[in-house]
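User: Sequence recovery, please. Input:
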């Protein structure tokens, strides 16, 4: 356990050794720590016996009575409390007590009942079936009256709570995507993402966005965004620099229902949010994670801020969908997919730098949603297939043009979502990546090893095998081989 927390005017760092405030190690909530919290305007309830429910209740009630400042409850507990021989030791942290110690603990705390036997008087205190039924009946009656008085609002409430999309969603979203294809724009995919939010936000009032102190860089606010800090009826949360807390909170919002949360930070900082993002996948929560500044293209901030292995690690997380779009059209399709997905989270990976929009037929446009599709093809069976995602699609198409000019039959496959592509039927996957074509080159500014899945052990990869460096993006792409000439050379080496 380690991290930082912002407590009003107070910033604290905590780890296994305790809390440090303003550079002073305080230990775990000593009286000196309490005094410091009080000096910053907190109400502190000290010396609460964390094993005494009466004391805990009294402390909570005291805190509730203080309404003009935050409260801190200092509860003292002992790990393994009640175990006569192992309490207060590491032995009760990661291992069972054992039969002998269980028997000793039962005797020490005066528990006379067998395993899984609940005394009737205790069960009765916890039995909420009758009270719960009464509350549910009261709610149903109240909502029925509300629905009669306000039928449209009641229907909208039920739609949002049940996670259903508006009746005109499909038509509106598809119209927007088709308009983007008809009006090309060479913009960063993070800007394309903001444009998608602008269009979709007007259709989806359940959107509840937020960013970890990077909203101007993530471009996750649109014209309808209103900060909850300024308006309790708002739809945007400025989370501050707390990626894990942000992601965990948005998980809770998704579980509550009625909202469609999305959160944002730089892709590199998914490392701070990792456990909450993983839990979203494990719990099959509909949540949208926006990660911008997606590669060494971030530039001068250097390798500490340039994501390399994050794309691969997110892709191999079970039930996590990932999209890395190549232009504004794929970005809008990625957002549409994320919004419609109701059995797990979706990560949307966007670039800092501008991307060239690619031409597409109506069939190609329809196939974007399948996660992978033929973007550019040769006449007849291709000799080599180039596979790319995101910001590398543009130079891959240029490399294909150069190969074709030299007489090579080449196909370019855009693969914005490997998990969506892998879910397609075998016939479609074979039509895009035919087994007969073994000469394949994958191009992505992320860790190279992931792509052997698609190019085979004898294929070639233009990818990262090291961390990045600190330099302008264009110099870095050239330094690490993300150039037309290098892609061409890799392809030609497979054809010899």
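Assistant: Recovered sequence (496 residues):
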């Amino acid at each position: 356990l380690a991290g930082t927390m912002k407590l009003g005017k107070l910033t604290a760092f905590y780890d296994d050794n305790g809390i440090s405030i303003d550079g002073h190690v305080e230990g775990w909530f000593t009286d000196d720590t309490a005094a410091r919290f009080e000096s910053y305007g907190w109400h502190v309830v000290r010396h609460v016996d964390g094993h005494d429910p009466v004391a805990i209740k009294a402390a909570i009630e005291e805190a509730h009575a203080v309404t003009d400042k935050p409260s801190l409850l200092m509860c003292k507990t002992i790990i393994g409390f009640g175990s006569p021989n192992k309490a207060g030791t590491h032995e009760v942290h990661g291992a069972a007590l054992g039969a002998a110690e269980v028997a000793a603990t039962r005797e020490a705390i005066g528990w006379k009942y067998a395993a899984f036997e609940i005394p009737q008087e205790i069960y009765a205190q916890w039995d909420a079936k009758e009270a719960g039924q009464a509350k549910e009946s009261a709610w149903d009656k109240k909502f029925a009256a509300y629905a009669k008085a306000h039928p449209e609002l009641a229907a909208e409430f039920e739609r949002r709570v049940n996670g259903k999309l508006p009746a005109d969603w499909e038509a509106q979203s598809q119209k927007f995507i088709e308009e983007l294809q008809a009006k090309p724009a060479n913009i960063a995919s993070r800007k394309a993402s903001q444009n998608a939010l602008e269009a979709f936000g007007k259709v989806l009032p359940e959107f509840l966005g937020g960013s970890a102190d990077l909203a101007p860089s993530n471009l996750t606010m649109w014209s309808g965004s209103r900060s909850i800090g300024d308006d309790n009826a708002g739809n945007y949360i400025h989370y501050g620099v707390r990626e894990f807390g942000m992601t965990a909170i948005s998980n809770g919002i998704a579980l509550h229902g009625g909202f469609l949360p999305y959160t944002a930070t730089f892709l590199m900082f998914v490392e701070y949010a990792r456990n909450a993002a993983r839990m979203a996948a494990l719990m099959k929560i509909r949540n949208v994670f926006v990660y911008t500044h997606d590669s060494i293209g971030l530039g001068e901030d250097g390798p500490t801020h340039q994501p390399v292995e994050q794309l691969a690690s997110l892709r191999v997380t079970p039930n996590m969908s990932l999209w890395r779009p190549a232009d504004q059209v794929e970005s809008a399709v990625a957002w549409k997919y994320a919004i419609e997905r109701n059995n797990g989270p979706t990560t949307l990976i966007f670039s800092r730098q501008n991307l060239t929009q690619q031409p597409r037929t109506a069939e190609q446009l329809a196939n974007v949603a399948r996660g992978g599709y033929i973007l550019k093809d040769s006449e007849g069976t291709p000799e080599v297939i180039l596979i790319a995602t995101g910001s590398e699609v543009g130079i891959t198409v240029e490399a294909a043009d150069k190969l074709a000019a030299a007489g090579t039959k080449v196909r370019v496959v855009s693969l914005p979502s490997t998990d969506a592509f892998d879910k397609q039927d075998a016939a479609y996957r074979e039509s895009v990546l035919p087994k007969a074509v073994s000469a394949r080159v994958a191009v992505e500014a992320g860790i190279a090893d992931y792509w052997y899945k698609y190019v085979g052990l004898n294929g070639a990869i233009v990818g990262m095998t090291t961390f990045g460096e600190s330099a302008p993006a264009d110099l870095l792409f050239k330094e690490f081989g993300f150039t037309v000439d290098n892609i061409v050379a890799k392809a030609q080496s497979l054809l010899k």
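The chain has a mean pLDDT of 93.
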